[in-house]
Amino acid sequence: MTVYLDYSATTPVLPEVADLVYRMMVEEYGNAGSRTHEFGVNAKRAVELARHQVAAVVKADKTEVIFTSGATESNNLAILGLREFAENTGKKHIITSKIEHKAVLEPIAHLEAKGFDVTYLDVAPNGLIDTAQLKRSLREDTVLVSIMHINNETGVIQPISEVCQLLNEHNAYLHVDAAQSFGKYPFDLENTRIDFISVSGHKIYAPKGIGALIMRRRGYIKSPLKPIYFGGGQERGLRPGTLATPLIAGFGLACEIAMKNADKWFKHVSVLKEEFISTVNKIGGVINGVNASPYVLNFSIPGINSEAAIVQLKGVIAVSNGSACTSSSYHPSHVLVAMGMDADRIDGSIRVSFGVCTQQIPYDNILRHLKALI
Q1: Residues recognised as catalytic
Q2: Where in the sequence is the domain holding 242, given as residue range(s)?
């Protein structure tokens, strides 16, 4: 039986979460916008409970949570939703990094095509941004800094606390794509200097198709985001459409479970990762990136192409060689290119990602299959 090791792409839904989603679909199926009967009232109550559960992960207020379809939509709302404010104030400079997810880079590129000025921060060979470069890049007209928390390909943890400290004396909004860290890596995101946090349910054992944008107020001042599409006025007028109550309820429960188990899960995947590193070290594996999340391991083995390795490992483990969003693309990873790696190392890169459902990994079998390619 194939062991699933692609948790960065998506996670299985926890049984108790699936049970709740099912019940909300077939028994408590009211529309949260219907206020004239108990079905709608119960749905609204479930949504508000989930809003509290999501907010609690980062010690936000439940009124600061906007439900979306996932981190991609949240990223778009946080970035494109600032356009009107930026143009009205004359602040049209954005800072981001070269290793962001495409769900951040593409909306920023859209604004760049509309006349915004964008600074793309470099990363060192270890995968970390240079906070000194960020400091030098800040300008009076900088409206947004968007830096991911944990990279989806390498697992490298960016210095978000340092970024927050740098921005303490600046009014630029700070957006953090936390798809790979929210509910799993219980550090940094509680910092109140972070204005926008994008999260996805399917990265923490909730269903696909649900996520949130957490928008912190600055004191009593709400963020200046505007909707990027229209019709209905739900979610404080920022995200229209009937709320997916079953998915929202499941997402909320998954957040609550993650909070209760964060330390245990962290220790569990840390052991798995160390054992996997020991395995690939036996055949000269090279780790790509430092200061990485225990949930993600990116490595290359000299002389082995990742596509060949993935085929060879079929039926043993399910892994990837980059972002699931671009798995159909044969372009080299923009993340590894930005880290300055040569073509052979990039072509050989494999991403393994662990989860709480991962129990035993067939290390000897993995080693045998990889050795066959050398």
Answers
A1: 325
A2: 15-256
